[in-house]
Amino acid sequence: MTKTAPVGTIDFPVNPLSFAIGASATFVARSIDIDVHHLVATLERAAHHKGTSFVEVYQNCNVFNDGAWMEFADKAVRPDRTIVLEHGKPLVYGHARNMGIRLNGTTPEAVELGNGVSEGDLWVHDEKEDDPTRAFMLARMQHPEYPVPMGVLRAIERPTYEDLMERQIDDAKARQGEGDLDTLFAEGDTWVVE
User: Fold this and answer.
1) H/E stretch holding 155
2) In this structure, is residue 185 part of a structural domain?
3) DSSP H helical segments within the chain, as ranges?
4) Cα–Cα distance between 81 and 72 in angstroms, integer?
5) Overall domain count for the chain
């Protein structure tokens, strides 16, 4: 709800994490304002990442949408309705850590551990995977069908724009020499105004 949409907006919401992944951000994460330790750790990682970092923070607005995230963020239900992403570990969640996410082909599937389903059957999170497909899948997981992923979805290393620019300049200097600004200005058709 906002001042211009007092009974709520009818627009289909943009998914910021999907947008960031689609724009090739090299660090994409999500946290929530009331989980201060998780939020601080996530923001610190984002700040130390060399490249484009994007962190979505679910933050309560007590003016327009008080309690908007509480259906999955409240401490009493958070373990059952969110999943904390840990690199190299299976996607396990729940108060009793008895739930998980496995892939059924290319579709995430929430499952209960036991009855033939073990942690070995679950999706193992790899935040360093260069292909953004699985990070995109995590970004699209929403409550109530899935637990809401919290943490780093993607953290890959790529040369930054500055690194690539410096390399391009160094390569040009190696091929063509240092260059001379006066020669550049004087080449081609020139004239003197007196």
Assistant:
1) strand 148-155
2) no
3) 16-22, 36-48, 70-73, 78-81, 133-140, 161-176, 181-186
4) 5
5) 1
Supply the pLDDT for residue 21: 96
Q: What are phi and psi of 185, to 5 degrees?
A: -65, -35
Rounded Cα gap, residues 41 and 74, in angstroms: 20
Q: What pLDDT score was predicted for residue 6?
A: 84
| Contact between 81 and 71 (Cβ < 8 Å) | yes
In a domain, 166, yes or no: yes
2: Cβ–Cβ under 8 A, 6 or more apart, which residues?
A: 9, 64
Domain extent for 147: 16-91+126-179
Q: Are 147 and 110 in contact (CB under 8 A)?
A: yes
- Report the chain's terminal Cα–Cα distance, integer Å: 67
pLDDT of residue 44: 98
Burial class (CB in 10 A: 0-12, 13-18, 19+), 12: exposed
pTM, entire model = 0.83
Burial class for 94, CB neighbours closer than 10 Å (0-12, 13-18, 19+): middle
Mean residue pLDDT of the chain comes to: 92
The pLDDT of residue 9: 82
Q: How do 99-104 and 82-84 pair as beta strands? A: unpaired
Kindly give the parts of the chain with pLDDT less than 50.
none
The pLDDT assigned to 5 comes to: 84
